Amino acid sequence: MKKVLDEGKLILIAIPVLIWTLLPIYHLFVLSISTQESMLAGKLWPEKPTLQNFQIVFNQQHYYLTNFWLQLFNSFLIAIATGLLTLFIATCAAFAISRLKAPGGHSIMNFALATYLIPAAFLAIPMYKAMGTFGLLNTRIALILAMVALASPYAIWVLKQASDKLPKELDEAAIMDGANSLQLFRLVYLPLMKPSMVVIGIYALLLAWNEYLYAFLLLSSEKAVPLAVGLGLFLSADDAPWNLLMTAGLIYAIPPAVIYYGFRKNMVTGLTAGAVKS
Amino acid sequence: MTTAAMAPPTTASGDATSGQARDRVFWGVLMLAPYLLVFAVMVVYPVAYGLWLGLNWQSYKALFADPIFIRTLVNTVVFLFIAVNLKFLMALFLSGFFVQQRAWVRFMLVLFILPWAVPSIPTILSFRVMLNPENGMINQQLFHWFGIVEGPGWLTDPTLAFASSILVHIWKSLPFWTLILVTGRLAIAQDLYEAASVDGANKWQQFRFITWPSLATLYVTSTLLSMIWTLGDFNSVYLLTGGGPGDLNHVLATLGIRYMRNNNLDLGIASIICAMPLILPMVWFMVKRLSKGAE
User: Is A228 in contact with A248 (CB distance < 8 Å)?
Assistant: First the structure.
């Protein structure tokens, strides 16, 4: 009896939590299969569900969507470039700080952590100004560099922690066998760090894919912006075709959701470990 | 095992060890170089440049003469206080739900993470359409079920619009912090609870004397971290209401950008610098804490 009661209490909590969590996502989905008229009716389920919106989006048959595929490509390009660059920079830096005990490594780690903690929105204006003086405004390189700068600190920190956990004896044994630093990096460090590197690469990739503020500040040409900014353009009209926006938004949300669920176990332990540690 | 025991064998000559030391320093510096380059170009230079621009005393006078700025300061503090506390009370409660060892609860956790896993733009815009006072789903449903002809102005009434952005902010960040607290709760030894229930402690006493003392440090650290990040939340306000209606609902993160977009860069920089006395102590504290944890 008590068991049934407990279960009942849990279900009473579960229902509102599920509604709260899923309603906006469900709404997103409903609009994406609604026609222009039924979208304005605010129904819980559209009268005549249709896939026509997807057809319009894929064929770029609307003023706001003329560059849909190009912007989707930009999103991919920026995310992948950010992921790879961050991975390279952070893997090297974590090795230098954690294994080689490079001079100044400790202070660099602290500066990096400070950058990570200062909210990105507050770095955006100075970074925008700096990009202007570099002449990089409105280039995808500007956004990639900005995202690398934002993703690296946390990446270094997580990789450094993972690297600190590798036994020192491995290095010492390799050094005794006459391995130099580069060989240590290639033969000992890289193979053991692979799991953490996957998590960090995905972290940077998702950060760049999801970014809106920096993308919309640093890029303005419709051909250079990623899809996030392309979707934001819908905000400029009051009678925007929200159903098309939601359709494109759904397509935009799927890759990160799939990646997240594919790597869920690693991501959750990898990313929460850092915050829980202290 | 002591380090002395692991020192290189005596056969290695002094030359070889100093050669190895030089090799380590060389590669150490070289491998830090890419990050240092990015850091110098993308962080140090912009920040220094921003501080230099921020030296203009006139912009602070203009800033404090702007009623929108004063309103924004108040908004920011209220947003921070309500959003962070509400979020953490919910996260604390829900983490107790999600540690239940049941298959369906574990499956629900997978769904519960969704807001955190999907990008903000589509979901916040979905909120925006859903909360539209005239043809949004919420008010249409209120009409349909309860006959409310003129539903609340979720995005047009200043107070409600502000509350809506807090709601969206919590919706987006609650899963992450719940997960953190779940991890924290899972680290508590189960036999403590068993011993307590044998001694006849009720659920509240178990929480009060076992769960809370074990979670307190994590709770406080997380709250602080969340405060810093909430301060920088641009999307929840900008994408939902654009700081409206009538620029009444800006927070510091959106106001700086608004100044900048209106070709008033100096005011944008000045408004950010005004937030620094609030942010920097927290950042300093967290850096110390996190780098200590990493040692």
Answer: no
